Amino acid sequence: EPEVTQTPSHQVTQMGQEVILRCVPISNHLYFYWYRQILGQKVEFLVSFYNNEISEKSEIFDDQFSVERPDGSNFTLKIRSTKLEDSAMYFCATGDSSYEQYFGPGTRLTVT
Amino acid sequence: RKEVEQDPGPFNVPEGATVAFNCTYSNSASQSFFWYRQDCRKEPKLLMSVYSSGNEDGRFTAQLNRASQYISLLIRDSKLSDSATYLCVVKVTGGATNKLIFGTGTLLAVQP
């Protein structure tokens, strides 16, 4: 069964550093999403991406965040200058339609 | 009022028991409904979509009441492997939005 994959599984970075989280979607999927989950809290939507552009973003997704699909396969989330409060699990999700979304295993980001 | 509200639990039940989870949502424009399952420190996994007429998948039955803005999940003959957090998820569809809105989840612990 095809799966969404994410790398790295765990990233430790210092405050103020840039991080790039990577996702490889299921091959025929066209809809891409990033969510995050702070420890002990609910899963929160960050951004959706379709047809090579952002279709929606949340209040969390400020100017420090960006997404791109640089080579037509990987889907990346960049945080330009990390803050302590960015520490969370970051999940990529993809879908072949706008209906169901399938999640990758996540990247645990720890900002120190 | 929270967008999606669930009893956080925990629900501690013996193997073989029937357990029911309830969920309410605040946005009457919500159009798609799902139950996801999340194991500790793992990604949410789609358990089942919820249809207006109600639907069943093996031991799992989901119901939707649009008038009351209420969703339920029933698990029959619970197994140890059912122990997880069950996430109620809604989606408001329309325009560019496809984001999933998660509840905080209900923790189920099935005891031997």
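qc> The two ends of chain A are 37 Å apart (CA to CA).
qc> done
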